User: Which sequence fits this backbone?
């Protein structure tokens, strides 16, 4: 797949088949992730691969409850509140795999480094015919002591990117993009 096509056609995938993703495919995605740039080449990322359905179901319930307690009452959050209140809404869309990218150190560029690894991983998933979606709604819970305990993550780790992976059940619809705001600072 041509790189620019991959960048333009990757979509957040929210509907998956029940087919699992084998370890070799997951290792390939992680290999793509670790080739991301990182500040002073620190490579602070760690990868926690959750393929246990019961764990994912439990994490969905707990993270939804946590988010409901913490989101604001402002009208802008109404859509999320409705989703989180829906008992049938699965935070991970029943995807077979959740790949959590965390930083082992709370260092200055941890967020940037892990986000770049996440983008590499999502593009590699797309290039391999897999779907992915960053689940920000799980991120805050995974940074609490209870959330970390659920996945046995060390307490000092910072979770940046919870990414679901699976086989898309169909092609996700295109999403719109705003026009880029560009300022050219050219010589006179
Ligand atoms: C930081 C971040 C957090 C996100 N959190 C969620 C989420 O919790 N649930 C979800 O369904 N999609 C989530 N998404 C996916 C976005 O909604 C999606 O990328 C956006 O709508 C654009 O669609 P596209 O990725 O198909 O171009 C998140 C994306 C990012 C980058």
Assistant:
């Amino acid at each position: 797949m041509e790189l620019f096509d991959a960048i333009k056609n990757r979509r957040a995938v929210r509907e998956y088949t029940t087919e699992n993703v084998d370890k070799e495919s997951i290792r390939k995605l992680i290999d793509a992730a670790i080739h991301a740039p990182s500040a002073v080449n620190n490579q602070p990322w760690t990868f926690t691969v959750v393929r246990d359905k019961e764990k994912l179901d439990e994490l969905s319930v707990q993270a939804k409850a946590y988010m409901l307690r913490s989101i604001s009452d402002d009208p802008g959050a109404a859509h999320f509140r409705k989703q989180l209140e829906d008992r049938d809404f699965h935070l991970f869309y029943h995807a077979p795999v959740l790949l959590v990218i965390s930083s082992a150190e709370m260092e200055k560029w941890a967020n940037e480094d892990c986000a770049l690894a996440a983008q590499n991983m999502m593009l590699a998933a797309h290039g391999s015919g897999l779907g992915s979606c960053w689940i920000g709604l799980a991120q805050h819970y995974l940074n609490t002591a209870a959330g970390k305990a659920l996945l046995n993550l060390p307490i000092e780790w910072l979770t940046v990117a919870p990414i679901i992976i699976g086989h898309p059940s169909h092609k996700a619809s295109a999403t719109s993009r705003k026009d880029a705001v560009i300022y050219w600072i050219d010589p006179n």
In short: The chain has a mean pLDDT of 96. Residues 148 and 155 are 6 Å apart (CA to CA).
